[in-house]
């Protein structure tokens, strides 16, 4: 679990990132979760945007993505989800 201080730190780091994935009409699937796991291993912190045509609520999408990828949900801001997962080999971020 992330502390408030760690979440603030990650939110600041994520501010300049662009969303890498988009969740649309089909919602979340296994293939997408696998790709997110792979990208999180390299980058640790990513943004995902939920498109307007998505049939699911953004909090449902965030829940299924973070659970599926075993990642921490940092925040949901607007239609953007920020996820963090500590990398095993490519550790970049050092949490406070």
From TrEMBL:
It holds the Pfam family CRS1_YhbY. The keyword S-adenosyl-L-methionine does not apply. It comes from the Bacteria. InterPro entries: RNA-binding_CRM, RNA-binding_domain, RNA-binding_YhbY, YhbY-like_sf. Residues 1-96 form the CRM domain. PROSITE patterns: CRM (PS51295). Keywords: RNA-binding. GO terms for molecular function: RNA binding. The keyword Mitochondrion does not apply. This is RNA-binding protein.
